Amino acid sequence: MRTSNPIFSRLGGANRDAGPAGAYPREPLGTSVGGGLTGGYGTNPYAPAADTDTGAWAGRSAVTMDDVIVRTATTLGTVALTAVLSWLLLPVDEANIGRSYGIAVGAALVAFVLSLIQTFKRTPTPALILGYAAFEGVFLGVFSSTVSTYISPGVIVQAVLGTFAVSAGVLIAYRMRWIRVNQRFAGFVAAAATGFLLLLLADLLFSAFGAGNGLGFNSGGLGIIFGVVGILLGAAFLALDLKQVEDAVAYGAPREEAWLAAFGLTLTLVWIYLEVLRVLTIFNSDN
Prior knowledge:
Layout: H1 65-89, H2 97-120, H3 126-151, H4 155-175, H5 183-208, H6 220-251, H7 257-286
Helix pairs in contact: 1-3, 1-7, 2-3, 3-7, 4-6, 4-7, 5-6, 6-7
């Protein structure tokens, strides 16, 4: 079973030279709610094609939760550091706004290209992942500074706290098993995300071709509702990501897969931050 996150979908790849057979997690994606295998992980997806007793796996270690935590902290720390530096070094005042915007747009494009390259690579490359994090941080720093300076002062702290709150809520709900992450859940999230992105694309097209405020997703009550839906989707992505990490650890995925986990979690958390920022900005502007 693949998640909606393009990076974490790699963690569910079929039979590759990745790791020794491991025990099934409590409810791997691809099982029914009752636990019977219905597809997806019919066998250990990280078991090598050859017999593991032949020694083909010798010298390679399996990923642990500590590996994922350390690499995720490194990746998110890179995003945060470059965001702060770009906020301080690329001011959005009248004298520098053109240069700052140009650098931010360029950084966003580079981050997008790096993310695509890593997504389609067969193996994780730490340099690509950290490069993505650095350029993403530059974009977020300038964008956040612009919102705080010209639209809603003080909203960035609220958005960061909101992102932490959403993430903590999902983590608690997941660990307490209040969220049942299974095949049906993943299918629902994929369908909802497709509809959300199509509406977002339509809004951008209407705005680009002279419809002013587009479909109205960036202001008023409709904008707040759209943003809340985006936050809920981000929370669902995060639950899928957590499940995929848990499965990878339980199945004995190779240790380098921790970088893909860090990359996927970073993408999801950036999504949540931007949607929280959208809702707070609209709410504060309306008041």
